[in-house]
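Student: I would love a firmer grasp of how sequence relates to backbone shape in proteins. Thank you; the sequence and its tokens follow:
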Amino acid sequence: MGLRLKFNLVLVAIFIIGLGAAGWVSNTLLLQNARSEVVKSAGLMMEAALSVRKYTVDQVRPQLNKLPPETFFPQTVPAYAATEVLGGFKQDYAEYSYKEAALNPTNPRDRAADWEADIVNQFRQANTDGDLLGERDTPNGRQLYLAKPIRITNPACLQCHTSAEAAPPAMVKIYGPANGFGWKLNEIIGAQIVSVPMEVPTRNARRSLVTFMGSLGLVFALVFIVINVMLSLLIVRPIRDLSAAADKVSTGDFKQPEFKDKGKDEIAVLSASFNRMRRSLKKAMQLMRE
């Protein structure tokens, strides 16, 4: 096995290890950044929903409450307003969704699906008001969800949700007497859930990884070629010439010219040593002939 082959095998082994490590680190960082972007998008949607809720409570409801008591407008309900406003996302971004999922909702469209009910039950069991962040697989790809519990903290809400008899008749006429009643103060009855797709950011992260790894491979190929050319010119060829000359000198052939030993590198030192050995051996052979 030649010197160049040994050197190249070591170089390729180092490259494979380095490429694997760089790929793993880069993939981890890119996926983390992609997930951070998705979490940020989910947070913005949640903040938009909270803003709509606050606007409805502070400015819309007081105006509509001036109407006769026998009238009822769903637009006065914060959950309805937030769902309607963020529902507009689906027109251009079908995979983005917002839902105020409840176990016993007044509006049937807010009834929690199985996975949403699991989130609500987690909040109820933990009795916490903190956020819940997670991922799930859907027919449209993997999605990230951000959830906040819906807790009844305002006693005024119980006027509509204690019983059908105590609720506004206009509301009961719209939604019926079977749903959305029996709520209690400080009870978690549902969750605000934002779902954001992860497919596009993840795909972009993978594309960036492929581009980076391809660029790294191209750089290695160029470095590999340059190193091999320099190795051939500066090390392999001089050593090969020295080896051939030494083989001839060892058989008594002193017609080979001396090597140039300019410089202070190892090859120059080896050439100078070879030249001294050649002269000494030639002189010794001449003395023997005399």
Notes: The longest helix spans residues 3-64. The domain at 3-12+206-289 is CATH 1.10.8.500 (Helicase, Ruva Protein; domain 3). The longest strand covers residues 141-151.
